[in-house]
Structures are given as C-alpha cells and as structure tokens.
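ugh ok fine here u go
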Amino acid sequence: MNQQEINEIIDYINKKYAENVPRPVRFVVRKKVKMIEKFDPSEMPVSLRNCSVEQYIDIFKNALRDGSIKL
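structure:
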C-alpha cells in the first residue's frame, strides 16, 4: 500500500470520527487508544485475518443485531 492510500484511509477515519463522535466520547476513546498500540495482528485468528473489511463489518453488524457480541 502506498503512502497516498494510507493517507486517504487516515483522512477518512479522521473525518468520520470528527463528524460522528461527540467531544466527551473522544476523551474516553483517546484513553482506550493505548490498547490499539499494544495490538498484535499476528494474534488474530486466521479466519479474521483472511476476511475482507466488508465481511468483517457484516459479521460485526449481524452479531450486534442478534446479541452474540457482548459489548
């Protein structure tokens, strides 16, 4: 992936975050970002590493809808 593509993704995330996340929630999210810094993708199951972003989002939405994800 080239730098332009990476920048495009980062810009998209920043835009969505700014538009959709209230300021008090941003404070909490910043605190939780430390968890992402410690995240090791190699620890993910193979099934997750092999699915597309679209598949992941669909799986996540369906799991939220049917209550199988505990948040």
